[in-house]
Amino acid sequence: MYHKINLFKFKKLIPVAILFLVANQASAEGLNAKYPVFSQVNETITGKVVKQDGSAAEGATVTIVETGATTTTDASGNFTISANIGQTLSISYDGNEQLIKIASTSVSVTLQSKDTTIAEVMLVGYGSQKKSDMTGAVSQLKAEQFKEGMNISVDNLMQGKIAGVRVVQSSGEPGAGVNVSIRGIGSIRSGSTPLFVVDGVPLSNDAVSASSPNVGLGNTQAKNPLNFLNTSDIESITVLKDASAAAIYGARGSNGVVLVTTKRGKKGEPIFTYDTYLGFSSVIKKLDLMSADQYRAAIVDKSYDHGGSTDWQDEIYRTAASQNHSVSFSKSTDTGSYFASLSHMDQDGIVKNSDFKRTTARINAEESFFDNKRLKVKLNLTASDIKENGIPNGANAGSDGQVIIHALMANPTRSLYDENGNYTNFNMNAHYNPLYLLSVYTDKTNTFRVLGNTEATLRLLPGLNYKLNLGIDRTMSERNTTMYPNITDRTPKGMYVQANLDSYNVLLEHYLTYDLNLNRHNFNILGGFSYQKFKFSGTYYGVRNIADQNAGISPELNPGYSGDVFIPSPGYAQENELQSYFGRVNYNFDKKYLLTASIRADGSTRFGENNKYGYFPSVAVGWTMSNENFLQDSQIVNELKLRGSWGQTGNQEVPNKLTQASYSLSQGAGYYLYDNLNLLNGFTVNRTANPDLRWEVVEQTNIGADFSLWQNKLYGSVEYYNKITKDPILNIPSKVLSPTTTVYTNVDGEIVNKGFEVTLGSDIIRKDNFTWTVDVNGATVNNVVRNLPVSEIYSGEVSGPGMSGVTANIYKNGYEAGSFIMLNYLGIDADGKYIYEDVDGDGTIGPKDRKIFEGAIPNLTFGLNSYMRYKKIDFGFSFIGQTGGYLVNNTALNLNINNLASDRNLLTNFYESGASPTNQPQLSSLYLEKSDFLRLNNLRVGYTFDSTQLKWMKSLNLYVSAQNLWTITNYTGYDPLVDTNKQAAGNQSLGIDYTTYPSAKTFLFGATVKF
């Protein structure tokens, strides 16, 4: 049972808004008499806007600063607008703004060259701001910066392009989840995923596709909740990294905020665009396993030679084809804009029987009404239908439930088929022919999602605007998983399970903004209210002992055809609400001295009665030194701004109902109440109530500088951050006489992340026929756990024979979050036996001899991106890399030397090391490897054909692209940029690689046509 928050009576603001609208006209005369600058316009101003080279600036936005009246320039750069002599024109074009006083009814404007990057207009929470006025740590990507490669979801687009943002795959399976972290890992239980906001609608980080049931092969990885967006529709991605920028999102901003904006119609002629590509993918690399001949020569027991020769990696992996088609239409008028798109992606996975299909439709529309566009209404709507086929690759299935580990361990002397043409039966428990396992398993997920919102902006008075934002996010998902009757020991009589998920997220926001300019004093004030409700439910249905695979109708089409009905898991339904009040003030004095202050109050049903509301303040200051007299005439420094911020944000990503007690009835706790000896179910407390539970709080300090030098030949930013997570939520031992042994509570511990971020860019060459830009970014992070009230917390369950209950991660004071704990491997003795360090000196090796090693978080992450254009040829590439982190190669642990004694394959280097096959596998530093790497992440070459002679086509660009082309690393697994979810007891795991679906190397052939 949740505690419902009384909804703020927002309806009361609607008549207030109407009253303002009606009263505004009545009060206009009084205002005009008192303030002449707001007088009624009575002149027709005509003008022309040109670039520095004299060409027309088509689509420039022309605004009267005092009244808000707006128009745009036509194809010749001409415009007409109503204004008074003496008022101010704002000319915005290509991210820059110029202000010009109106001296006559005819105006001619020559735009200044774009010699700075600080002049860009960037998105912030609940609005936008010129970068020159910003005081927080904010990074923005535009569409042209992520057009290379095949990217299914938003998070892939950020990889290697923003300092401090790390994107790691949990699986290479199409549509699978991706882990995004900003400035390190700041939580033990609550995750480190940032808040994603799409066109003003904050998304939930909960799963949006039905969970995988366990039919004997474990639960597969969660799907990516962001894969519903067509990446071709995205206009920009903005990352709010420090507390000053993210505090406006309060309880959900502790891991940073990612603002995603989709495309809108642009000024000029209507444009119809067709994007398409055809791609081919293969496994990024193969593991160095023993071949059939090597295996025959190595084994002692010749019964393990089955006479065949099979490369099982070649059998399970394939060259996978992918295609994408996207059409879009955009148009803009004097009063509004329109953008519509339709796309279809079909991607085969590199593992047989896996694929991802997505169809999306989007419409973005904006229209203005009344005098001088007093009312503006926006509509953003996207719908996606996703169909996925998965494989049995559950991270929690142990050593016998993953098709990839079966392929890697399969004896290379076995044949794929027997003499009768059937799949070879290995006749072994917990080890099966991987192709046979694929053939008797199906996992089909269908997810339909609709995300939309309507925004209405009403100008109540000059500079004063009211905005209403109503959004909805609705998902329906069905997953059908079947394990047909088979010859293995995993559900041999077969099982079918249907899982359903219904997710609902509704948002209501309304707020006021006020822009006030008093000579050199400039204010932007924001105040508002937000209400968001989340509701999701799930049901399960199952059938055991089903008919054979080729007999009758498949269970997903007719579950009642055969078998015994059962409920594989109880259904669930949860609901939570978030009610918030927020405010922000931006102050700018003389374009030199900047101040930003914000606060948000969040009330959540997830937390206890005594802590329903949390308060998240921030303050930031900035000094634009380049506007001072002593730098205004500098030939070196074009822009230089120093800034500093402090603030607090929250993390509410914990399961619902943690504050509530949980009870159950069971015979185990039963008793005999009457003399008839009938046993009554007893009453058991499963969870102790904690009405004092509250948010985890992240306190962050940031010091930064933005600069542009030598006419934009070098530009960028430098940041120092100190980010401290306080009051972490843990499930720790409860006090004496508590009804349960553990309780969820906030503790006094801290997780500290601090480091530097550097972003550098350069317009090396900018000429008519040749341009070349390069940018590099790098970030350091130093992570440490402090002041935990418990000695240690474990996570990271390890899989493999004899590994039950073994964990690899530890959270302990003085060490990095998720550090590794294991035996220290020293080498091999004369008999081939493994030698481990005897830490406690008792002469035996046991759990007390485990040591703590460095963790998975890299000390340095970096990226390099370059773009060139020579006449009609464009060429771009990007590198990514990291150093200082480690991975537990749990896959190698399953491919250990002992496999020679158990009819299984192994890694070649284990045999060549001289180790004895009698060594029993143990978690040790033998399997701890550095995750350092340098990768050519993307490479693209394109050519734009001259279409001036074709009236029906504006442009045609053909290109070839390569993704994950090559990687330099000493890591022996498939990919060093991986993180399998192996959490234990709800504590997140870090840096474990267990038979993860491998990444792919991809080549694309594509075209973009504009009509």
From TrEMBL:
Source organism per UniProt: Epilithonimonas lactis
Domain TonB-dependent receptor-like beta-barrel, first and last residues per copy: 416-965
Lineage, top ranks: Bacteria, Pseudomonadati, Bacteroidota, Flavobacteriia, Flavobacteriales
TonB-dependent receptor plug domain ranges (all copies): 131-257
Subcellular location: Cell outer membrane
UniProt-listed Gene3D superfamilies: Carboxypeptidase-like, regulatory domain, TonB-dependent receptor, beta-barrel domain, TonB-dependent receptor, plug domain
Membrane-topology annotation of the record: Multi-pass membrane protein
Signal peptide: 1-28
The protein, known as: TonB-dependent receptor
Pfam families, per database record: CarboxypepD_reg (PF13620), Plug (PF07715), TonB_dep_Rec_b-barrel (PF00593)
This protein's GO CC annotations: cell outer membrane
Family according to the record: Belongs to the TonB-dependent receptor family.
Superkingdom: Bacteria
InterPro entries membership: Beta-barrel_TonB, Beta-barrel_TonB_sf, CarboxyPept-like_regulatory, Plug_dom, Plug_dom_sf, TonB-dep_OMP_SusC/RagA, TonB-dep_OMP_SusC/RagA_CS, TonB-dep_rcpt-like
Keyword annotations from UniProtKB, A to Z: Cell outer membrane, Membrane, Receptor, Signal, TonB box, Transmembrane, Transmembrane beta strand, Transport
